[in-house]
């Protein structure tokens, strides 16, 4: 038995997220179908996390176990020949038999892209949140580093069926930065892990900061333990990319 680690890039527009769902196209489902066909039996492909419907990945990490002795470079080529063009395996390597891409991950980085121009190109519309309205950029820039450190992110998380097994909403954010780049804003965040809709909710609240609806005190209040402020608003999935996972 071999444990194989892969790095996957995908356009999530036409998929209902990472996790297998009966009757719906998902990234995990497509990978399991292709790799299972090569292996000749059902194969479970475990990911580093479950991206939502419409979310993209530049460097999702996944792993699976097979008996097939095919060299890793040949496996990468074979899988890519069979995958649809909006999913690509960028790297394949042997891993320890006990490797798990989710439980052993140390840091993840996400990027969210906001397009500020009046007219969004039809060739970009699937990969940005279009917001051509006035924003207080300085206030948004000042708010983003406040997320750094260990905090209770309950006010930035959607309800999740995994809550019973993982009740704590405390996570560590190592870096949280917003960068104006020409006609767009790029928000990048690196953390020990992320809750359901956490990055999209952070961006949604940052936009409220930019609109003048949330001030510094109200932003910080969302990071207090036991905060009862409802999560959201949630920014659209199409602007979000999983950039990388570190081990």
Question: Characteristics of this structure?
Answer:
30% strand; single chain; globular; alpha+beta; 247 residues; 10-stranded mixed beta sheet; 10 strands
Give the SSE map.
Elements: E1 2-10, H1 27-39, E2 46-47, E3 56-66, H2 72-82, E4 87-95, E5 107-115, E6 129-130, H3 137-143, E7 149-152, E8 170-181, E9 184-191, H4 198-211, H5 216-221, E10 240-246
Parallel strand pairs: 3-10, 5-6
Antiparallel strand pairs: 1-3, 1-4, 2-3, 5-9, 5-10, 7-8, 8-9
Helix pairs in contact: 3-4
Task: Give a verbal description of the structure.
It is a single chain. Helix 3 (137-143) packs across helix 4. Strands 1, 2, 3, 4, 5, 6, 7, 8, 9 and 10 form a ten-stranded mixed beta sheet that branches. The protein has five helices and ten strands. The protein is 21% helix and 30% strand. Strand 2 (46-47) and strand 3 form a beta hairpin. With 247 residues, the chain is α+β, with helices and mostly antiparallel strands. The chain has helices at residues 27-39, 72-82, 137-143, 198-211, 216-221, and strands at residues 2-10, 46-47, 56-66, 87-95, 107-115, 129-130, 149-152, 170-181, 184-191, 240-246. The chain is globular. The model has no long low-confidence stretch (mean pLDDT 95).
Q: What can be said about this structure in brief?
A:
This protein is α+β, with helices and mostly antiparallel strands and 247 residues long.
Number of DSSP strand runs: 10
Helical content band: 10-25%
Measured distance between first and last alpha carbons: 22 Å
- The geometry reads as globular
Q: Secondary-structure element order, as H and E?
A: EHEEHEEEHEEEHHE
Quaternary organization = single chain
Radius of gyration, taken over Cα atoms and rounded to an integer in Å: 19 Å
What's the total helix number?
5
**Structural class, from secondary structure content?**
alpha+beta
Task: Bin the strand percentage.
Answer: 25-35%
Task: Extract low-pLDDT stretches.
Answer: none
Q: Major sheet: size, sense and barrel closure?
A: 10 strands, mixed
């Amino acid at each position: 038995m071999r444990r194989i680690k892969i790095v996957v890039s995908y356009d999530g527009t036409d998929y209902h997220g990472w996790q297998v769902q009966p009757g719906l196209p998902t990234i995990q489902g497509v990978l399991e179908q292709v790799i299972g066909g090569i292996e000749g039996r059902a194969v479970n492909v475990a990911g580093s996390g479950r991206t939502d419907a419409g979310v993209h990945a530049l460097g999702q990490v996944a792993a699976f176990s097979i008996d097939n002795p095919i060299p890793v470079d040949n496996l990468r080529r074979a899988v890519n020949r069979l995958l649809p063009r909006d999913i690509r395996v960028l790297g394949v390597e042997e891993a320890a038999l006990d490797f798990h891409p989710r439980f052993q991950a140390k840091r993840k980085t996400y990027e969210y892209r906001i397009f500020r121009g009046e007219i969004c190109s039809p060739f970009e519309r699937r990969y940005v949140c279009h917001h051509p309205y006035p924003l207080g950029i300085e206030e948004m820039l000042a708010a983003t580093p406040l997320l750094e450190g260990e905090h209770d992110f309950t006010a930035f998380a959607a309800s999740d069926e995994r809550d019973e097994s993982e009740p704590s909403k405390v996570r560590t954010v190592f870096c949280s930065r917003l960068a104006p780049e020409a006609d767009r804003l790029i928000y990048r965040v690196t953390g020990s892990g992320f809750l359901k809709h956490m990055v999209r909710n952070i961006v949604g609240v940052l936009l409220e900061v930019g609109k003048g609806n949330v001030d510094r005190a109200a932003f910080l209040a969302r990071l207090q333990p036991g905060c009862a402020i409802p999560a959201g608003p949630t920014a659209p999935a199409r602007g979000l990319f999983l950039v990388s996972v570190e081990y």
